[in-house]
Write a structure and sequence with these properties.
122 residues, alpha+beta, 6-stranded antiparallel beta sheet, 3 helices, 39% helix
Length: 122
C-alpha cells in the first residue's frame, strides 16, 4: 500500500479527531481488558473478518510520530489487508481506528501491562 499526501489528515484535523474519538471512548462504557498484544491481534483479526461488509468504508488510524499526533485515512479493506504491518509501525502505541463519520470504531489503549479494548458500531 503506497501512501500519498492525500492519505494524511492535517495536524489540526488529527488533533480534533483524537479529542473527539478519545472522548467517545471514555463515554462509551463498553471497555474490556486484554492482557497482551497477542490477544489484541487475535481479537482485531476476529473483528476485521466479521466486518468485511465495511470493506469500502473510509477509516482513520490515529498515530504518534516523534510526539506529533497524526492520522492516516484509507479503506477498511486496506487496513484489514495490512493490519499486522500497521501494528508493527505503531510499535506499542494505542490502536485507534474509526470510520470517517465516527459511526464505528475500534480502540485498543495500552495501559501499564495490558490493553483496554473499546468498540462501537461494529
Amino acid at each position: 500500500m503506497a501512501l500519498t499526501d492525500e492519505h494524511f489528515l492535517s495536524s489540526d484535523e488529527s488533533i480534533t479527531a483524537r479529542t473527539i474519538v478519545y472522548g467517545l471512548v471514555q463515554d462509551c462504557g463498553n471497555t474490556q481488558q486484554i492482557k497482551n498484544i497477542g490477544e489484541v491481534i487475535g481479537d482485531l483479526k476476529t473483528i476485521l473478518v466479521s466486518n468485511q461488509h465495511l470493506k469500502n468504508e473510509r477509516v482513520v488510524l490515529l498515530h504518534y510520530q516523534d510526539v506529533e499526533s497524526g492520522a492516516i485515512t484509507f479503506t477498511f479493506k486496506e487496513f484489514s489487508t495490512h493490519f499486522e504491518k500497521i501494528i508493527d509501525f505503531l510499535d506499542g502505541e494505542d490502536i485507534v481506528l474509526f470510520q470517517v463519520e465516527i459511526n464505528f470504531g475500534i480502540c485498543f489503549e495500552f495501559e501499564e501491562h495490558n490493553y483496554l479494548k473499546t468498540v462501537w458500531g461494529v
